[in-house]
Amino acid sequence: GEHYIIAAQRVIEDAVDHGVCIQAECWVCLSLTLHIVKFTNWVITHHLSVSPRFLLQINCVTFPLPGEGPEQQLLKPDEWSYCDYFWADRKDPQCTTSVTGFEVLLQKQLKGKQLQKEMAEFIHERIKIEEEYAKNLSKLSLSPLAAQEEGTLGEAWTQLKKSLHDEAEVHLKFSNKLHTEVEKPLLTFRGDNFKKDLKKYDHHIADLRKQLASRYASVEKARKALADRQKDLEVKTQQLEIKLSNKTEEDIKKARRKSTQAGDDLMRCVDLYNQTQSKWFEEMVTTSMELEKLEVERIEWIQQHLRQYTTLRHETDMFNQSMVEPVDQLLQNVDPAKDRELWVKENKTGDVRPVDMDI
Amino acid sequence: GEHYIIAAQRVIEDAVDHGVCIQAECWVCLSLTLHIVKFTNWVITHHLSVSPRFLLQINCVTFPLPGEGPEQQLLKPDEWSYCDYFWADRKDPQCTTSVTGFEVLLQKQLKGKQLQKEMAEFIHERIKIEEEYAKNLSKLSLSPLAAQEEGTLGEAWTQLKKSLHDEAEVHLKFSNKLHTEVEKPLLTFRGDNFKKDLKKYDHHIADLRKQLASRYASVEKARKALADRQKDLEVKTQQLEIKLSNKTEEDIKKARRKSTQAGDDLMRCVDLYNQTQSKWFEEMVTTSMELEKLEVERIEWIQQHLRQYTTLRHETDMFNQSMVEPVDQLLQNVDPAKDRELWVKENKTGDVRPVDMDI
């Protein structure tokens, strides 16, 4: 607590007075309190020619304080990689809980699964619209309207009506392909196992954080024990100096031994903590990279299948256009003279012209 | 009647015996009876080197008999023109009435009006189908499905959804143009006046036929009167030869005068008949040509407007295809790295990596 801050302050003041460069051994471990800000400012304003590394724990994870010191380089510069940006927990503004950076990454993948399902649903709706349209066109193509038109004009009209059925077939084909090449894949991409795999990652990382919290508690406990032992030693030493008690040197040696032991305990706890944090760190890097890869694959897969959608749309419009061509052809062949010939041959009443009556 | 047939037969037999060429003056007018067939056959089998013109009246119109003689050349050869093929009446097999060739032509035009209306109805149905399709696509384009997709993939998806609305607009435009450029014209082409005009033609030609029938009745009446007069003269002449009666030459002169007068009456009636038939003939040629022209115009007009239909179909499919292009463009721009950058910038929790705890 404050004790340490004051002690640190004094060490540094001393070093400054003596022009001494403070080495790594002088790292001071501080808990996160309001004093840190004050202290940091003090360090900065005094332009210390030191490289102090001040640390803070947030939710049992140890971070360096921002400020002068060796800047951390991104693990994967210019890549905006997951492994570089999700170390801290995010505090939920609406409540007191916080969510880990990893959970943010995980939620994104789960969200992605939901989005692909919604896309499939959208495609399904399009399929229904196409089937309805095809059904209507097909029905209309069977209409007997103007079926009595004859000759080349009648043929063109008949083909025009038929072309609606051809168009219907094109749209039906489109909707079938939409189903097999876009909708169904969107529904089945990353099946149920995907969520299970994500859950496994989730639990694994969460377990490591729990372990880390547990190790951190041990460190705090050992730190407190050391503080107690040191205070005891100090008191006993002072008492010896002012001959306040009957304590013998034996007692001081014992107190000193216990203090040393407490110090060793603390170091062991810190070691274990650091090992666990390293393990968590490794898993974070590995797993976040895995999630990053999954996201790239997801985007590329969806891109590919949406391109399949647009390809089908192109094809459909082209096929649809070609359905009009036979109609165009027959319309071009419409020949009133031909139609007159056909009709007259069929319907003529008599080609012998009347002549004058004579006696 | 039979009297004439026998008389004609005898004249021709005589001529044949004497190797005489029978001139125009010897045209014999015969009523339509079974004898005609027998007679025609007789004429044909005897390979007469004559040009007999035997006539027959059907429904008061006078036609030359088929057979050897100057062939009638078509008024408009190789054109299958209405004016060449609709002279006779057509007998309705189901009843005793007959329908004129002209009525057949008229019915065709009236039928054409009905057919254009049916075509308009068909186009109307297509319009309804297009509007339904457009409505459905538009509605689906507003769907919030997968709206939470972000970055370049989200943009592509958003454009994909929007493209449905663009397609809907294309189809709506198509249906609107179908209405103004095809349906409406088909409905209004040849308005109500058309039927009225046709009715006028109908009545005019029918009136001329009625007049012709009336003139024909007069001819028959005059012919009978002549026959009576001639019989009377013959009887009176015979009676004179065998001195059967007290008839004086006066009576015979009177009978002969009446006979001559009856002959003149007949010739006048035949003249009037021929004038009326000529008038009807002219009107038939003129009006049937008019109907022929109307039919050519009808076919060409419909051809033109059905081509407008196919043009609109072509356009629609082309516009529709182009609606996919912005989607293609955005899909091409889908960039997982970019999306990661955007998302990470927005959602990162902290880029400071944990460090070892130290005392």
TrEMBL record, chains A, B:
Keyword annotations of the record: Coiled coil
Alphabetized SMART domains for the sequence: FCH
InterPro entries: AH/BAR_dom_sf, F_BAR_dom, FCH_dom, GAS7_F-BAR
GO BP terms: clathrin coat assembly; clathrin-dependent endocytosis; neuron projection morphogenesis
Recorded GO CC terms: clathrin-coated pit; clathrin-coated vesicle; plasma membrane
Keyword Coiled coil found: yes
Boundaries of every F-BAR domain copy: 78-339
Protein's name according to its UniProt entry: Growth arrest-specific 7a
Organism: Oreochromis niloticus
Gene that encodes the chain: GAS7
